[in-house]
Amino acid sequence: xxxxxxxxxxxxxxxxxxxxxxVENHSRDTQKPTDSNLAxxxxxFIISKDGYILTNAHVVSDAKAVWITLHDSTRVKAELIxxxxxxxxxxxxxxxxxxxLPLPIGDSSTVKTGDFVFAIGHPTGEELSFTATxxxxxxxxxxxxxxxxRNRFIxxxxxxxxxxxxxxLLNIEGSxxxxxxxVDARAEGIGFAIPINKA
Length: 199
What we know:
Largest sheet: 6 strands, antiparallel, barrel
Number of helices: 2
Low-confidence stretches: none
Helix content: under 10%
Structural class: mainly beta
Number of strands: 12
């Protein structure tokens, strides 16, 4: 198994998981989140200590309210700062009375085919939240059309399911190199990530 200096994959997970969040798309804006309003679940991750979060635009599309759950189970409503359907990126903001642990942003231009990668997300929503998957880069700069829009992705063989959408793709040093965004329905076990430099 690849070692990262002296640390293991379990340490990599422990060091990263507090930067990952559950993103809930709600069809109604209420004071408290209720399951009856839950339209969909995806993944997001913290990029700044003051509460900015990245996710996929499709995770929050048409949401009347977006609720975030932190790894410590804190639940808070997020503000949608902006979203771009073309690149499938959305920016959210939360305010919580605690220290947030943003993920360190890496450089996706240095990613090579064969590099080991690590993803954290919620493959089927709440019941499998904060799942780690591990794999390697199958191709870089892969041009794929998703929902009619052509983008260039990092192709990975780590398992990515719909609930992983918007979650972090990390390199073996624990730096953010991409945003896991979609599965190729024709090919089991292949996922795609938006390079973090593009995001």
